[in-house]
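Annex B. Sample input.
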Amino acid sequence: MAVASSLVLLALIVVGLFGGSLAPYGFNEQFVGDQLESPSGSHWFGTDDFGRDVFSRVLLGAEVSLRVGAVAVGISLVAGVLIGLFAGYYGRWIDDALMRFMDMLFAFPALLMAIAVLAILGRGETNAMIAIGIVYTPIFARVTRASVLTVREEVFIRASRSSGAGDARVIFRHVLPNAAPPIIVQTTISLAFAILSEAALSFIGLGTQPPDPSWGRMLSEGRGFIEQAWWMALFPGLAIFVTVLAFNVLGDALRDVLDPRQRSALSGKGAAR
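Annex B, continued. Sample output.
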């Protein structure tokens, strides 16, 4: 499953990078007289109500979803890891202040928080990246802090301090690399939820704006034609489903590989059998 998911994600990355060359038609190219045409040899996924090729728009929508997901997770990764590092390493009032602020953000439902941020910044793809990045920052902060609390008491950390290393060197040279495995796993899982959040925001009209292709926006446009043109909603929905599932399966596989306790548990079960 992990290998299959990796291959699916690799194919999606290729489509995201070279979708413009792979798509048979432009994302906004219209065929007058071919509106709502069912899947055929000339239009594999059919056409929408404007006569646009759904297959081409699904391919080109992969670039939008992957770009928004990657940038949003990058924002939350950098912000959350820095907050978690300083909170876990220094502790005391710094830990209390930073983590209580993270708890306040974490108390809001993810989609509601993103909508609130977009209400301030305005709709659009760039603002959607920022909103999703803010929403998932507390998760990275919590995961990083939990790892740092364990690593900072290790013998090699004490040895580094006693040798005269400064806090910055200890944090970024010793603590962060040893706290990285859970962060890597969380990054993979967060990519799935970021893509799903982008689709949800685009579905309600706050994310990617037309005529740019977005799986969530295509799903929203297709719901009004679900009875006479089921393909308009089916194929964008399948694209979201397959992408999110692949990221989740890959995240679970990385957790099994990078988490020694999980690996020991699995080995113990195998030996018992």
